Amino acid sequence: TVKHTLYLRQLGKELEEIAEERDLNPATIYSHLSEAIAEGYIDLHDIVSLSDDEINEISHMIEYLDISKESKLKPLFEALDEQYDYSVLRCVMASV
Fold first, then answer.
1. Using an 8 Å Cβ cutoff, are 31 and 1 in contact?
2. What's the pLDDT at 72?
3. How far apart are CA 77 and CA 12, in angstroms?
4. How far is Cα 51 from Cα 22, in angstroms, rounded to an integer?
5. DSSP characters over 26-86
6. What is the pLDDT of residue 29?
7. Could you say which of 29, 32, 53, 59 has the lowest number of CB atoms within 10 Å?
8. Integer Cα distance of 32 and 1 in angstroms
9. Which DSSP letter does residue 11 get?
10. 3-52 confidence digits (pLDDT tens)
């Protein structure tokens, strides 16, 4: 299903559109795309609309908290004052 989601995104479909078409929750679509980011199939910037400064802030906090890809996201979410959605954090984590 990750490949199908990636295919639809590469066709230019928006995340919400993919979720609706596939009858899935948008968080599931983000999860699929974070896997694709981790595998190098798609670039983080193609998925999230964050500035480089925001990506750097999140990346530095991941390193500071020593969070691995298997870790829970809640400590990261809280350390960043809850300003980023879990799905976005998952995608950034997949890129580091």
1. no
2. 86
3. 29
4. 29
5. HHHHHHHHHHHHHTTSS-GGGT----HHHHHHHHHHHHHTT--TTS-SHHHHHHTTT-S-H
6. 95
7. 53
8. 8
9. T
10. 999 999 999 999 999 999 999 999 999 999 999 999 999 999 999 999 99
